[in-house]
Amino acid sequence: MGIATTLLGSRAVAALTAPHGVDRYLEMFNPMWAATEVRARVVDIHRENPDAVGSAPVATLTLQPTATWRGHRAGQYVQVGVELPGTARRMTRCFSISSAASLPGERFTLTIRAHDEGQVSRFLVNEARPGQMLHLSQAEGDFTLHESAATPTNNRLLMISGGSGITPVMSQLRTLLRDGYDGHAGRKVTFLHFARSTEDQIFADELAAIAAADNGVDVHLRHGDQRFSEFELRRLVPDFKDTDTWACGPAGLIELVRAAYADSPRLRVEFFKPPAIAAGSAEGDVSFARTGASAENSGATLLEQAEALGLRPEFGCRMGICFTCTSRKTEGTVRNVLTGEESSLPEEDIRICVSAPVGDCVVDL
Amino acid sequence: MATMTAPRTVRTKKRATVAATDPKSPNLTADQLEEFGNELDALRQRVFADLGEADAAYIRMIVKRQQQFEIAGRALFYLPPAWPLAVAALSISKILENMEIGHNVMHGQYDWMGDPKLNSRIYDWDTMAPGENWKYGHNYIHHTYTNILGKDRDIGYGILRMDEDQKWHPAYLGNPLYAFLLMVFFEEGVALHDLEIDRIRTGERTWEQTKKVGKPIIRKVSKQVLKDYLLFPALTGPLFLSTLAGNAVANVIRNIWAFNIIFCGHFPAGVATFTEEECENESRGHWYYRQLLGSANITGGRLFHILSGNLSHQIEHHLFPDLPARRYPELSVEVKALCEKYGIEYNTGRLSKQLFSVARKICRLALPTRRTPAPAPVPVADDPLAA
C-alpha cells in the first residue's frame, strides 16, 4: 500500500491526471480508493440516548476511513462533508472524534447530537445508514492531550465538559485508559461532566464502568439544574488553577470555567459557536476577520462596506457574474441583492458584490 | 487590477450602432428596458431556485464520460492500428473537458454545489490558458463589456478585424490567414490572449502587468507540454512519436471545434457592437439587451449542444453566465418568447449558416470598408441608459 500510495500521490501522476487529479479516477472504480483526499464509509450507527425525552438524539457513527487517513490525536476534530439528499449541495461541518487516538487508516468514531438547526448533524444522526460515504479532512485542532500513558510525570489531569462537548475529552480518557495509564502513580484524572438529564447522558454505561474500576479516574456526573461553580470545582480539585485542564462544551459553560481559571495557562478550551440569529434588518455589525476591520452594518453590499472601511478586496464586474470577488462568509446571514434570497449557512462562499448582510455578519477579508 | 484604462479605439461621436447594423432591432424606451430586465431577472431567479440533484448528477455524469473517453484514448495509443480511434476518443475527451466542464465550471456555474472539485476558484482546465488569467479576461472583461468596442478584447482578440468600426489597416489584409492560424493554434492563442501583446506594443500595458500575467502562462504551458508531449508519449515507450503525434492532433481537433463554436457565438452577421458612450452608467435592462444583441445561437441536436458546452446557446449563456449550461435549452424557449414580445431579433441558425456568415465577415473585413451612405441615424432610445 505504501509504495502504491506514494506513487499515486506523486507529482508525475498528478500531471498525468490533470485537471481532475488521480482521486477522480480512483473513485470511478471504488469509492474507498484515494491517493490524496480522505473519505470514509459509515460502518455503524449507534443511538446513545434512546430514552431521552425532549432533547435532541445523539448517535455514535463508526467510520472506516480511506488509507489516506493519517490518524488522529485524542481531542482533535475532523471536517465532515456530505451531499444532503434533495439539494445536492455539499455541506461541511466540524465534529470532534470520540474514539481513542487512531493510527493511519484506522477506524474511529464521531458522536454527534442532532441539533434542530443543524442540517448536517440531523442528517448524520437520523438519516444516514451504514454504507454512506463522507468527505473528510485530516484530523485538525490542538485541543489535544500531549501526555501519553507512558509520560513519566506526576501531573494531575482535569477534564470538564458539557453536553456533546464530552466527545473530545472522552477520546482523551479512552486513549489514556487504552494505553495503560496508571492512576496509582499519583496522576489522578478528574472527569467532570454536565448533562441535561440521566437519560440524556452520553456514554453512561462506559462512564459507570470507568468510575467503578480501580484506575485512578474520578468521574463526576452532574445532571439537570446542577451548574458549574468554582466553589464545587475547588472542592473536587483544590489546586485546579495549577492542574492541566481541558474544557469543552457550550459557550455558557466555557465562560464560567474561564472566569474561574482567570488567566491560568493550564486551561485549554474548545466550545461550540452559538448559532447566528438573523435579525431581519440591516442593523448589526459587519466584521472582516482577516483585517480585523468592523463597522455598523449600513445595509450596502459587503463589497461596498469593505471598501468604505478602506479594504481593497478583489473585484471584477460588480454585478454578480464574474466570481472575482468571491469570499468566505464565516458567520451571519446575507441577502442576494439581485434575487432577494437570504442565506445563513456558516462557512459559505459568497459574491460580496451582490451580497448585503442581514444583521451581524463576519467575512474572511 | 484595473488594466482597463485607455481604450484602443477612441470614439467621440455617439453612434446608433444597433440601428445601423440591425434595423430590425427596436428602440426600447428606458421603461421598456427596465421591464425587460425585470422579466429576465425573474427567469434567472426561477431557474436558480430550482437547481439541485438533476444538475449535480448531470455534471458528474459528464465528468465521468469525459474521464472514460480520456482513459480509452490514452490506452488505445498502445495499439498502433487503433491510432485513429485513440485520437478520436482523446479529442472527444478534450472537447468535453474544455467546453461543457472547464468553461462552465470556471464560470462558477456549479459553485453552489460546494464541491471543491467543481469549484470555479479551484478548477483549472485542460488547456494552455491558465484559469486565473482566463477568468479575468473572459468572466470579467468579456462578459461584463460584451461587444463594447475598445473594451471587449474578444472582438477580434487583438489580431483580427471583426467589426466595421475597427479602423482598417493594411495588416488586416491577412485577416483570413490570421483567422485560420488562430483556429489551428487556438489553445496557444487563448493562452497568449491575456498578455495583450498589441497593448504592450503601444505602451498601454506595463512590464509589471505583463509579468503578472506571463508567469502563470509559462507555468501552465509547461504543465500541458509535459503531459501531452513528454509523459504520455514516454509511457508508451517505443511508440513515443506516434503517441506524441496523436496528442497533438487531438489538441488541434479540439482547437478547431472550439474556435468554430466560439466564433459563431459573437461574429455572425446581425450581431451588434456598442460604443463605450452607449454603455456608460448602463441599466441592468440595457446590459441584458446588449448581451442579447451581441450574441448568436447555433441550432442542433442534444449531442451537438453537449459537445459545444451548450455555448450553442451563446445568447442564454451571455444573459445568465452563472447558471448551469444544461439549463440553456429550456431557458431559450422563454428568452425567445420575450424577444418576440419586445420585438428584439433572436439571432440563431444552423452551424453551416453561422459559419458561412462568420467566414464571409472575416474575408470582407480584410478590405477597407466602403463608405456607403449610412442609414439615417436612429437613436437606440430616447435615453436608453437612464433607468
Automatic annotation (TrEMBL), chain A:
Does this entry carry the keyword Iron?
yes
Ranges of residues in domain FAD-binding FR-type = 35-146
Instruction: Kindly indicate whether the keyword Metal-binding belongs to this entry.
Output: yes
Q: Which GO terms describe its molecular function?
A: 2 iron, 2 sulfur cluster binding; oxidoreductase activity
InterPro entries attached to this UniProt entry: 2Fe-2S_ferredoxin-like_sf (IPR036010), 2Fe-2S_ferredoxin-type (IPR001041), Beta-grasp_dom_sf (IPR012675), Cbr1-like_FAD-bd_dom (IPR008333), FAD-bd_FR_type (IPR017927), FNR_nucleotide-bd (IPR039261), MRET (IPR050415), OxRdtase_FAD/NAD-bd (IPR001433)
Q: Where are the transmembrane segments?
A: none
Q: Which cofactor does it need?
A: FAD
Q: Which PROSITE patterns match?
A: FAD_FR (PS51384)
> What Pfam families does the record tag this protein with?
FAD_binding_6, Fer2, NAD_binding_1
Domain of life, source organism: Bacteria
- Specify the protein name: Ferredoxin reductase
Q: Which organism is it from?
A: Nocardioides pocheonensis
Q: What is the lineage of its organism?
A: Bacteria, Bacillati, Actinomycetota, Actinomycetes, Propionibacteriales
